[in-house]
Amino acid sequence: MNRAHLSQLAVLATVAQCGSFRGAAKELGIAPSAVSHAVSSLEARLGVSLLARSTRSVAPTEEGAQLLDRLRPALSEIDLALEAAVEARDRPAGNLRLTVPRTAAHLALTPRLGAFASAYPDIVLEIVIEDRFTDVVEGGFDAGVRLGESLQRDMIAVRIGPDLRGAVVGAPSYFGAMPIPRHPHDLAGHRCIRFRFSSGILYRWEFEKDSEEIELTVQGPLILDEDHLIANAAVDGAGLAFLFEDYVRDALAAGKLVRVLEDWCPPFDGFFVYYPSRRQMRPALRAFVDFFKTTR
Fold this sequence. Notes:
Blueprint: H1 3-18, H2 21-28, H3 32-46, E1 51-53, E2 58-60, H4 62-87, E3 94-100, H5 102-109, H6 113-119, E4 123-129, E5 143-147, E6 155-159, E7 166-170, H7 172-175, E8 193-195, E9 205-209, E10 212-216, E11 222-224, H8 227-235, E12 241-244, H9 245-253, E13 258-260, E14 271-276, H10 283-292
Parallel strand pairs: 3-4, 3-5, 8-11
Antiparallel strand pairs: 1-2, 5-14, 6-14, 7-12, 7-13, 9-10
C-alpha cells in the first residue's frame, strides 16, 4: 500500500465525520487547503469521486460511503495501537466520545466529571446530549449511556449508578384547589406538565404496583423538554409533574412540593454505559467505566 494513502484516508474519514473541510481541518490541526488537497489527491489516484460537495455541506458519495464502511474498522485498530503505545506510560489518553441523554448527564455524570478530569488529565471526554437511542458504531461514538431497559442484546452494559425512582409531585397551592390522586387513573382530572423527547414523542406516564402495569397519556396546559423546567413549573403550581425523584428531592424536603402516588412508583435499574461486544475496549473507555461504575 502506498503510505501516502493512509494519511489521505484518515483525512477523508475526518471530513465525513465533521461534514465539512473546515471542520476537519480544525479537528486535524491543519489548513483547510491541505484537507482539500488530500481528498482531491486520493480521488485522483482512485479515479472515483468520494465526496459530494455543496456550498453548505460535504457528504460521502455512494462509493465514498462504501469505502468508509470498510475503512472504519481499520482506522479504529490503528487508534487502538497508538493508544496502546501511550498506555505504556500507565496513563490512559486520547479522545473519548459518548452519547448521553440529558437526564443521565445531570444525574449520573455531572456530579463526578471534575473528579474524572483530575484523575485522567490525558483523556479528552466529549459528551453529546441525545435523548434518542443511538447506534454508537454508526454515530462514531465509543460508547453510550442509557437506561438498562433501552439496551440492545449485542451490547456490553455496565451499570454506573444507583436505582432510580419516579415521583409524581405538585405544589401545595395546586392541591389547595385539586384533589389528591389515589390511583393513576385519577390523573385524568388533573393538569399534568408533559415532557417531550427530542424525537417529538410525548412521554407516557408509567406506573407499577403489585405486578400491575399502567401506561397513561396525560393531559395538561404545559409541554416542556427539560426536567429542571418541569420541576420549577410544578413548584410554581402549574400542575402535576412526573420526574426522577432526584430532581425534586430538595423541593420535597423544603415543603415546596407534595408527593402523590408514591406506592405506584417502585425503584428500577438506573443508567448503564454500553458499547459493542465485538469491539476491543479502548484504554480510555476502560478508565471511564471503572471510574463511574464505582458510584453504585
